[in-house]
Design brief:
Elements: H1 3-23, E1 33-37, E2 44-46, E3 62-64, E4 70-72, H2 81-90, E5 96-100, H3 103-111, H4 120-126, E6 132-133, H5 141-151, E7 156-159, E8 164-168, H6 171-192, H7 205-209
Parallel strand pairs: 6-7
Antiparallel strand pairs: 1-2, 1-5, 2-3, 3-4, 5-8, 7-8
The structure holds zinc ion (ZN).
The site of zinc ion has 5 residues, from loops.
């Protein structure tokens, strides 16, 4: 396959992934954004700023270099593109990123309370509890660097008062991680109505997250 065909395949993957997360209510209306790294060029494919997911096509996808310059695309780049680029710069294991706005995750985001990985799938995906990045405007590279400090080697982080971000070694994995964070947030909230939830014992963590 030619590089152009490969690039088009990645654009299709991004559009399909965006439709999936929109379809399950993780990015209401035009909120959030998704990106993935082109392993051939090192460029980043990303959804545009404030664009309805139900109208998104491959023509709307932006291709950016690691500095954030537009290589391809006619739409306005996401204002959070520098955050995604900071992740690709610093995390070699990141092939895709989802910034979503799930409601139960946002509940913990407004409480500034880390989400316990109550479900075993969340622990495996995230590699621990989901920490909270203190509130700051999210339009800069520095926000990305500060967020990565908070994340450590985790694959997800809550943004205080503003959604969450998840990393994966594929877009499917980043979406899976996003869903598992929201499931643990929902479980955590519901369990707290009944008492103190039991955590997965620490002695199993190393075994589960490898
Ligand atoms: Zn946002």
């Amino acid at each position: 396959m030619s590089a152009a065909q490969d690039l088009n395949g990645l654009k299709q993957e991004l559009v399909a992934g965006a439709a999936q997360v929109a379809g399950i209510g993780l990015v209401p209306l035009t909120q959030g954004n998704l990106s993935l790294r082109d392993p051939q060029s090192g460029h980043v494919l990303m959804t545009p700023h404030d664009f309805p997911y139900d109208q998104l096509t491959t023509d709307d996808v932006l291709v950016l270099d690691l500095a954030g310059d537009v290589i391809e695309g006619r739409r306005e780049p996401s204002h959070e593109s520098q955050v995604h680029l900071a992740v690709y710069e610093r995390r070699a294991d990141a092939a895709a990123i989802v910034h979503a706005e799930p409601i139960y995750t946002n509940l913990f985001g407004v409480l500034h309370k880390a989400i316990a990985p109550l479900h075993v799938g969340t622990l495996i995906d995230v590699r621990g509890e989901v920490p909270v990045m203190p509130f700051a405007p999210s339009g800069s590279r520095q926000f990305g660097y500060d967020m990565l400090e908070v994340m450590g080697d985790r694959n997800a982080v809550v943004w205080a008062n503003h959604g969450m971000l998840a990393i994966g070694d594929s877009l499917a994995k980043a979406i899976h991680c996003t869903v598992m964070v929201e499931i643990s947030a929902q479980l955590y909230h519901m369990a707290l109505q009944h008492g103190e939830p039991h955590q997965i014992p620490q002695r199993y963590h190393g075994m589960l997250v490898g």
